[in-house]
Specification:
The complex is a heterodimer of chains A (about 150) and B (about 475). With about 150 residues, chain A is an all-alpha fold. Chain A has six helices and no strands. With about 475 residues, chain B is mainly alpha-helical. The radius of gyration of chain B is 22 Å and the shape is globular. The chains are: A mainly alpha (about 150), B mainly alpha (about 475). Chains A and B meet through helix 2, helix 3 and helix 5 of A and helix 5 and helix 6 of B.
């Protein structure tokens, strides 16, 4: 599979913060639904990540793009578990069960996110270590040189 | 039916703990002895637990909904895990015979065994996702351990793809979680069967299939997968391909269990069968072009993944039996072939142009490799023949003679390239100097022992396929749906 293309990638990297700021403004000014806003942000993050993985010709930027993709997925999970006015899903002895069951947020997505953060950290660590090795050898981070098929 | 505690978790826990211990051992003599003990004890593990459904965690079952880790153990899973552990221990034994033994290598291998067993056993998507990612990391680590620069490159490529596919798989799991509210596969199946489908569920299914493709090496991920098999040391590659195929079987069974029999799954059936056909054909066509023995074998591994996926994607009880049986046969003969490549490359190299005339030097090894080659091409009386026959029968039973024809054609291609490799390695005439060089290099006896065990299994399962088929059939009847085109 081709992992490198020489295409101007700056447009999306400039557009991304602008869209983010627009969403923040929408939330603050227009009172946009927080869950919807997070889904949109997650979608943008995932698209930027996928774009970066395929079209950016730099190993380090590819890794950053991968972490953006992972964060998009994490945000999706968090947004799924979101509940307006929810409480922490820990049942205290004093709490009534029905009150707890209706108010507490769903803890499973959060558990998944925590696990994913750990896994992603280890994966990124391996990739960064490998890119250090590549940099020492080639004196460059260009993916078109480093990952060239032979 | 529900058991509170048993020795079953040892399948996952014991290799994981030993993996941590091996990480801190540096003396190679100690590693050798401990690894041998590990290899012997791994084979016993699948027989410790009794069949049934297991729950681990704080709450167990509450008002019909399951919370916590759920495992299902049945004869089919037992035989898959047994084969996995057997190949793991044979690879460990081969590793003992190497000049440099590394604690990290043993540790990674054990971690992979534990994770793949957990993926096979687990009945909830959370566990499957976590251990799926650990398998990806372990595979990368095992490739990096071979220490060449090309290995680093392919590991990096594999890692980029892996990170992406892992994220997409998690996204799919998130979709399914948001649609159904649970991650337990049995509960999720009940929900999906009784409720109308939504676009979220379609998205979840699509992402699961992407995760499956990456984990097993179906297209579009076949090149990165073949690359890591070819770059790793051959005896490690035998372990890598075993991991991939076990993951394929496990996740495919999950997909069938969740969506099998639902009206919208027909399209996915078609897509999965198409993917497996692409895998079969790409694999064998690429294998015919290769001049390096390791690369040739790696592309055949991809091609064989296509066979397993085709059997499972058909989704009838016979198809599932054929798919799992072919996966088990594949573990055995493909590992035998990779171990054979290990022995051959110890003699000289894995480049087919440089080899030749090895038959008089090691006739027994040549015979064993020939057995494995005949098994992979589906020649009776070896095990490959039995499972390929079942696969073709399953394809015919759902009125897809085209699929059966493609399988047979791909078998022919496999036979051609395997015999080409056999001629170039063993029969091609070579110079006197080369024979002298062959005689000075030694081959470790451990790898020949492992190869012999696998060859005996090839013949045994070819003559008595019922040993495995009888174990798988009840589970296949439970999951499979009968349909015709």
């Amino acid at each position: 599979m081709i992992l490198y293309y020489d295409i101007n990638y700056d447009i999306i990297l400039i557009l991304y913060p602008i869209i983010e700021i627009a969403i923040i403004l929408l939330i603050l000014v227009m009172n946009m639904d927080l869950q919807l806003a997070s889904f949109i942000t997650a979608g943008i993050l995932a698209i930027v990540g996928l774009y970066g993985v395929f079209f950016v010709d730099n190993v380090l930027k590819k890794i950053i793009a991968l972490s953006a993709l992972g964060n998009g997925v994490n945000l999706t999970l968090i947004a799924i578990g979101y509940k307006a006015g929810g409480i922490v899903p820990i049942k205290m002895p004093s709490m009534e069960f029905t009150m707890f069951a209706t108010k507490a947020v769903y803890p499973l997505p959060q558990a998944l996110v925590l696990t994913n953060i750990v896994i992603e950290a280890s994966m990124l660590a391996i990739m960064l270590a490998l890119s250090i090795v590549f940099y020492k050898k080639y004196k460059t981070l260009k993916a078109s040189i480093i990952l060239k098929e032979d | 039916m529900v058991k509170i505690m048993n020795l079953l978790p040892l399948i996952v826990v014991y290799p994981l703990i030993m993996a941590i211990i091996f990480n801190y051992i540096y003396k190679s003599k100690v590693i050798r002895i401990l690894a041998l003990l590990m290899a012997l004890s791994l084979i016993i593990l699948p027989f410790l637990g009794s069949y049934g459904t297991y729950f681990f965690g704080a709450h167990g079952m509450e008002s019909g909904l399951i919370s916590g880790i759920a495992y299902i153990f049945n004869p089919a899973k037992q035989i898959i895990i047994f084969t996995l552990m057997l190949i793991g221990s044979l690879v460990l034994i081969t590793g003992i015979g190497e000049k440099r033994v590394n604690g990290l290598f043993v540790s990674l291998l054990l971690m992979g065994l534990a994770s793949v067993s957990a993926v096979v056993l687990a009945d909830d998507l959370f566990n499957i996702y976590v251990f799926y990612e650990i398998v990806a990391i372990v595979q990368t680590g095992l490739v990096i351990a071979s220490g060449t620069e090309k290995a680093y490159k392919s590991a990096f490529r594999y890692m980029i793809m892996g990170n992406m596919a892992g994220s997409l798989l998690l996204l799919g799991i998130a979709f399914l979680l948001s649609a159904t509210g649970t991650l337990n596969i049995s509960d999720m199946h009940n929900y999906l069967a009784n409720n109308p489908a939504t676009p979220t569920i379609y998205g979840g299914l699509l992402m699961l299939i992407i995760g499956l493709c990456y984990g097993s090496g179906l297209p579009p991920f076949h090149t990165v997968k073949a690359d890591i098999y070819a770059r790793a040391k051959p005896f490690v590659a035998s372990m890598l391909q075993t991991y991939s195929k076990a993951i394929l079987v496990a996740i495919m069974l999950v997909i069938l269990k969740l969506f099998g029999g639902l009206s919208y799954f027909n399209t996915a059936h078609g897509a999965l069968i198409a993917l497996s056909i692409f895998g079969m054909v790409f694999g064998v066509v690429m294998a015919l072009l290769q001049s390096d023995y390791k690369k040739l074998l790696s592309y055949h591994a991809i091609s064989q993944v296509g066979y397993v996926a085709a059997g499972l994607a058909i989704g009838t009880p016979l198809g599932i039996v054929a798919g799992i049986f072919h996966a088990i046969n594949n573990f055995i003969y493909k590992s035998a072939l990779f171990l054979g490549a290990h022995i051959v490359s110890q003699k000289k190299s894995s480049n087919l142009a440089k080899l030749g005339g090895l038959l008089p030097i090691m006739p027994t090894v040549a015979f064993m490799i020939l057995c494995a080659k005949l098994a992979i091409s589906g020649v009776p009386p070896f095990n490959g023949f039995q499972s390929k026959l079942l696969l073709a029968e399953a394809a015919m039973n759902v009125n897809m003679p085209e699929l059966a024809i493609i399988m047979i054609l791909v078998s022919v291609g496999t036979f051609v390239s395997m015999m080409k490799a056999f001629y170039l390695i063993f029969l091609k005439p070579c110079s006197e100097e080369q024979i002298k060089e062959y005689k000075t290099t030694k081959v470790s006896k451990y790898s020949i022992f492992s190869l012999a065990v696998l060859t005996i299994l090839c013949i045994l399962l070819g003559i008595y396929p019922d040993i495995v088929i009888n174990q798988i059939t009840p589970y296949a009847n439970e999951i499979g749906r009968i349909w015709t085109l």
